[in-house]
């Protein structure tokens, strides 16, 4: 691949994460009865504008997979680089799975539809776990790669902190949704912490891409 095309495709590491979060946020804030503090990004694949949520995940996942390939071509050496590219790819794959197998109705969304469980929802849960697990893993994998270069020392620390932020926010999301479903804490802010977890991981990807582009 030519240097010009490599640099152009590398910019997908900026475009995809930003568009994923911006579209999800704007859509969530403009949907009647939708509560982004309680409801998840995945819930936006349900309801009248469900097509937008589905396409947001589908397109973002596809672009992230392409970015993962370009990332591997950009950072050539080291096990951290190999595993980092793989986990970036599984992040994109998780988004595709989440798009193709919608989440089950729940947390009073869509309005008037009772909560239910289905095979599609169970597969969606696997995709969701892949998404956040991969974000954690790619940060940790790349942190080991950054250890090899003094110029990337601060990035190693930032990568570890990002992994902790994604993990902690996802755990809080899981705790709050359990409290919500059990009626111990109705309307708990599980959606807010899911969005924080996603934003923390995506911010890391964007800043990493900017650093890589600056080095070219």
TrEMBL record:
It comes from the Bacteria. Pfam families: DUF998. Keywords: Membrane, Transmembrane, Transmembrane helix. The chain crosses the membrane at residues 52-75, 82-103, 123-143, 155-179, 191-213. This is DUF998 domain-containing protein. It comes from Paenibacillus sabinae T27.
